[in-house]
Amino acid sequence: MTMNKSNPLLTAYRVLAYVTGVGLVLLTVFTVAWLAFGASKTPVTIVGTFHGWLYMAYVVVAFILGMRLEWPMGKIVWTVLAGTIPTAVFFVERRVVREMKAQLAAKESEQLVGA
């Protein structure tokens, strides 16, 4: 499978990773404000709902990406779980993109040597 920056699956993964991460950080902030400082629960409900739906999309896209790139199941699980830990998804997304670039470079060099 060719994975480059214009690949729709990679683009979907990156967008969902960032949106899920931002949503989780906001959800954490609003939850702390609600529980610790008596702020309104409405933002928790709204952001929590959006984060939940977006996280499900993130899970599906991350799983499909991992299967297409033939990742071990442990790596797929860690990538999926990163969306449940505030800010972890940002680091995992960068690592996934970096590893994909290295994987593509290795495949390209194999193709050049084999040609």
From TrEMBL:
How does the entry describe its membrane topology? Multi-pass membrane protein
Q: Give the transmembrane ranges.
A: 15-37, 44-67, 73-92
| A Pfam family hit | DUF3817
Task: Say which domain of life the source belongs to.
Answer: Bacteria
**Compartment annotation:** Cell membrane
Instruction: One GO cellular component term, please give it.
Output: plasma membrane
Which keywords has UniProt assigned to this entry? Answer: Cell membrane, Membrane, Transmembrane, Transmembrane helix
Q: Which InterPro entries match?
A: DUF3817_TM (IPR023845)
PANTHER family the UniProt entry points to: MEMBRANE PROTEIN, MEMBRANE PROTEIN-RELATED
The molecule here is called Integral membrane protein
Organism of origin: Streptacidiphilus jiangxiensis
